[in-house]
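Extended Data, record Putative gluconeogenesis factor
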Amino acid sequence: MSLLTPPTGWHPTAGYSGRERRPRVVALGGGHGLAATLGALRHVTTALTAVVTVADDGGSSGRLRQELGVLPPGDLRMALSALCDETDWGHTWRDVLQHRFSSAGSLDGHAVGNLLIATVWELLGDQVAGLDLIGQLLGAKGRVLPMAAVPLNIEADVVHGSGEYAHRALVRGQSRVAVTAGRVERVRLIPSEPPAHPEAVAAVMDADWVILGPGSWYTSVMPHLLVPELAEALHTTSARIGLTLNLSAQLGETSGFSAADHLRSLHDLAPDLRLDVVVADPTAVEDIDDLATCAATAGAQLLLRQVSEGDGTARHDTLRLAGAYRDAFEQFLGDVGERSG
């Protein structure tokens, strides 16, 4: 395909009908964790929707939301880039979106894709239509939606120290919570009951599978359960729900967390949330029995698979993670693409 020839046949709802295009999968998260999930899932299904956190307040995204009052576009940009068409056209536009300016002026640090998304939002006056338009430009193999219709702030109760020296502090802002030196006890959204995008809720309700994680636990994974309409959809959907655990604790946000601690914190936030499968890399599990018990408490089976790159870094391998998802989907749905009872 020529760099000057855009992909044809793209439509924002492509992949939502027809046996060959199932299962319908919704991936929830943000940042690099969601990008890893999407990169894997695109090998398993063509009916893929990303529902993305919109609480980023740092860097290029933070500057644009402060100056223009828009949703922070950075995590949305990364999700779109992860779904780009595997052609010269798609790769070129992905690289355009991901390009950052480096200068001594006001453009320094801005990602081109963030500016482009903000532009189409201003021109179209519609967040979802704007993202669909960028998706069409990329030939995206899936759809990207914001989890909420307004920019969000994250507020966390953080404990510093231990024992008699412990004290609590209030930390506000995703960029600050992510690097806090204390132990996060709980998180809240501001506003506390933000409106979810109807398209995001509909995608969850219509899905065969919903995948949570991996990613920054309190600032990318948990927030979806704090948007009331989206949380209600996650609790009532007939979709199977899978959780992908991180390969390591995140310095600051989840320092000292075991694999089971991640699952316990999710259960503390949403004790009635039913899970069907928990995907974990054995090398990232300190106590398999403890994790299996936590998974069973949430109603889930534990699926242990090597999903890391195996080079000592905390990076997921795209094809290994895709294989784990395929195993999970086939176990519950029979042949991938056909629901079994």
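Summary. The CA atoms of residues 53 and 223 lie 7 Å apart.
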